[in-house]
Design a protein that fits this description.
Elements lengths: L1 H23 L1 H16 L4 E4 L3 H17 L3 E3 L3 H10 L5 H8 L7 E6 L9 H12 L3 E6 L4 H6 L2 E4 L9 H18 L14
Parallel strand pairs: 1-2, 1-3, 3-4, 4-5
Helix pairs in contact: 1-8, 3-8, 5-6
């Protein structure tokens, strides 16, 4: 019983984030769907970037978009490529270098996942990547926590995860919501084209 009681604050914060997102952010989710549909129709690719747990979420989401939605999706999870760029360039330039070498263009989409949304002090690499995309007229979508940082300003569609009841939970709640929203998107009837292995079983 003691363990169950200790777990309740986190679950309560998660429920709060889900309820608040439902009421305040559905128009942004609809806009993300529209951007993804339009990108697929014009033959564009989807590039997903994030740091830490958000990077892991990007890897998961890229696989789902590719498998379930027939979207050519990529996340920057090639360790050799990442460390080679980080060795040759300043760390905050690695995303720009990756996007540049991938020939990012206006037909593509950049999907950013970030707890803080990127500032000049924290997650500078994400901010530089978003500015690079903007310069090339590539549309940006994303999910961020707090006030959304640079992502909220630069994105064409961005879900801001509501501040949790307990501020010490902002990272796990935001990263959990990133994956929930990604699953919402790949399950959306306007995006999903392929069945999962478990459907109908």
């Amino acid at each position: 019983m003691e363990g169950s009681y200790i777990s309740r604050p986190f679950l309560k914060a998660m429920i709060h984030a889900l309820d608040s997102t439902d009421y305040t952010q559905m128009s942004e989710i609809d806009a993300m769907v529209a951007e993804l549909v339009a990108g697929r129709e014009r033959g564009g690719r989807l590039f997903l970037i994030g740091l830490g747990g958000s990077a892991a979420n990007c890897s998961h989401a890229a696989a789902d978009f590719r498998t379930l939605c027939d979207i050519e999706a990529y996340s920057f999870d090639n360790l050799a490529n990442l460390t080679a760029l980080a060795n040759d360039e300043p760390w905050y330039e690695v995303f720009v270098q990756w996007l540049e070498k991938s020939n990012l263009c206006r037909d593509d989409l950049l999907y950013v996942m970030s707890v803080g949304g990127g500032t000049q002090e924290v997650s500078q690499g994400l901010v530089k990547a978003m500015n690079y995309a903007r310069d090339g007229e590539t549309h940006i979508i994303g999910v961020a926590g707090r006030d959304g940082g640079a992502l909220a300003i630069l994105a064409d569609a961005c879900v801001i995860v509501p501040k949790p009841i307990d501020q010490s939970l902002i990272t796990p709640i935001t990263e959990s919501m990133q994956l929930i929203i990604a699953h919402l998107l790949v399950s959306h009837p306007m995006l999903k084209r392929q069945k999962t292995a478990w459907e109908g079983k």
